[in-house]
Amino acid sequence: MTTRVAHADAQPNAIRSADTSLNRTEVESIRREYPIFCRHIRGKPLVYLDNAATAQKPRSVIDAVSEHYANRNANVHRGVHLLSQEATQAYEAARDATATFLGAESAKEIVFVRGATEAINLVAQACARPMLSAGDEILITHLEHHSNIVPWQLVCKQTGATLRVAPIDDTGAVNLERFTSLLTDRTKICAFAHISNALGTVNPVAKMTALAKQASAIVLIDGAQAAPHTPIDVQAIGCDFYTITGHKCFGPTGIGALFGKTDLLESMAPYQGGGEMIASVSFDKSTWNDIPHKFEAGTPNIAGAAGWHAAIEHLNTVGLSRIAAWEAGLIENTTARLASLPGVRIIGTATTKAAVVSFDVESIHPHDVAAVLDNAGVAVRAGHHCAQPVMERFGVAATTRASFAFYNTPADVDALISGVEQAIAIFR
Amino acid sequence: MAELADLYHDLIIDHNKSPRNKGALPSPPARTAVGHNPLCGDKVVIYINNEVDVIHDIMFDGVGCSICTASASLMTDAVKGKTTSEIRNLFTSFHSLVTGEADAASAVDSLGKLAAFAGVSEYPVRVKCASLPWHTLIAALERDHTAVTTE
């Protein structure tokens, strides 16, 4: 396992002051690995600033998926023939790589799922639901993506438990005093994002986990937006569960991972039933496979795991700390220049931010801002970003969101600013 | 290739900056309906006073993108004095225009200023923005109290 600096609890701006950053030459070289950057959009070069929705894929990831189907395609785990052995080895190697990526103690603690949304649903149904009853509480925050709200609402409805929400302040940071006061002996589950997809707030996850553990709550961290932007060490954080999704991390769609502590996964009932997750089946009784296979019913996304493994290797060659530093520069540049435009308000101004810049342009609807940007070849997102409670908190129906990855450049920021200026000229 | 000027016709920019018939009518007696596009947050409220099936007065309120706002504004101008049946025909023509089923040249006669939305056909994502006010109006005419949504 490579040594990795734990960034569990960033000091203010620590994501910026970490290891040295990427430089422009490196970024240009990285961009050449991404076939999609040869595309033109409405006659202009593609400027892709919608990475929080999904990230682009390097040739190595695309090739890994194709290579699996071309040379190594077989079902996993039970075949005796060589192809099946190779497919199984590759699939389990992807699991090992994920364990290292997240700092897990063992690969048994990594369950492959479709994405972070499925991971949270798995924990909600297989861990939370059997243990909750009326009077129990689940604590989340006002920052959450719908995928870290709705599964808990469903479980509350099924069990009579109550959902509690820790508020955020006007900068988009979680109010830690209120978060602490909401942690009581009734709190059984505590779930929160590592990095907010709507605002870019970086939560002090180790501190929040420690507070929740004092209340003996089970802690799930939604890392879907964090994994592409910062190194993760689940042991340093101390959480019970951590979720990631492959497609935001330069991997294929349809693959994600749930980290879960061994004793929890072993004690949990299955999530989905079927093949692979069983040890034996008869009509009287079926018994379960060991973890993590107990939670992987049916044929998994084998090709997706191959692509995901290639994405991890791609990230490791670049280095997540250096990625964080490069992106911090882009975000600072974007924030300063947007904020200086007339009538532009940055939504989400927490001290420690990463990944995204959400903004509101006075008297111009985000849909129109995004359309003008699209016409200039710039892809951003306009809408509620699957975080309607966040939008309501800031008094907007929607924001325009530029979200970054390590292949974005200062020229991309120029194109974004120029597009917003053009929108202002057209609509005001 | 579609150009921004095709979508954002001068008339649309104008009606977005200075929407006509914006506001509310006392309700009752006005019929109202609320329309909502959950994907982008567009919200339209339509107020109508109609007697003997002819719209005498109509206003709209809400928050939306320029396509939605301009569509509501131009729609309210176009439907005053019209019957429900005439309005339905007008919407059918309008919908054909914005979805690209009919071309602008043939639409100008029946649609007048509404033909300014011809460019929406090149940007399918905006069809819902343009048609939300119309769906909401039809709900008000039918006295349908469930909120209208584009989903």
What is the gist of this entry?
The complex is a heterodimer of chains A (428) and B (151). Chain A is an alpha/beta fold.
Report on this model:
The complex is a heterodimer of chains A (428) and B (151). Helix content of chain A is 39%, strand content 16%. With 428 residues, chain A is of the alpha/beta class. Chain A folds into 2 domains: 14-45 and 320-427, Alpha-Beta Complex (Aspartate Aminotransferase, domain 1), CATH 3.90.1150.10; 62-316, Type I PLP-dependent aspartate aminotransferase-like (Major domain) (Aspartate Aminotransferase, domain 2). In chain A, a hairpin with a 4-residue loop joins strand 11 (278-281) and strand 12. Chain A is globular and about 70 Å long. Residues 1-18 of chain A have low confidence and may be disordered. Chain B is an alpha+beta fold. In chain B, 42% of the residues lie in helices and 19% in strands. Chain B has helices at 4-7, 10-17, 66-79, 84-98, 104-111, 127-141; strands at 31-37, 42-51, 54-63, 148-149. Chain B has a 4-stranded mixed β-sheet, covered by helices on one side. In chain B, strand 1 (31-37) and strand 2 form a beta hairpin. The termini of chain B are far apart. The model of chain B has no long low-confidence stretch (mean pLDDT 90). Classes of the chains: A alpha/beta (428), B alpha+beta (151). The interface between A and B is medium-sized, with 19 and 23 residues.
What is the secondary structure topology, with strand pairs?
The complex is a heterodimer of chains A (428) and B (151).
Chain A: H1 14-17, H2 24-31, E1 40-41, E2 44-45, E3 47-48, H3 59-71, H4 82-102, E4 110-113, H5 116-131, E5 137-141, H6 150-159, E6 162-166, H7 176-181, E7 187-193, H8 205-214, E8 218-222, H9 234-237, E9 241-245, E10 256-260, H10 262-267, E11 278-281, E12 286-288, H11 302-318, H12 320-339, E13 344-347, E14 356-361, H13 366-375, E15 378-379, E16 381-383, H14 388-393, E17 399-403, H15 410-427
Parallel strand pairs in A: 3-15, 5-6, 5-7, 7-8, 8-9
Antiparallel strand pairs in A: 1-2, 4-10, 9-10, 11-12, 13-14, 14-17, 16-17
Helix pairs in contact in A: 3-11, 4-11, 5-6, 12-15, 13-15
Chain B: H1 4-7, H2 10-17, E1 31-37, E2 42-51, E3 54-63, H3 66-79, H4 84-98, H5 104-111, H6 127-141, E4 148-149
Parallel strand pairs in B: 1-4
Antiparallel strand pairs in B: 1-2, 2-3
Helix pairs in contact in B: 2-3, 3-6, 4-5, 4-6
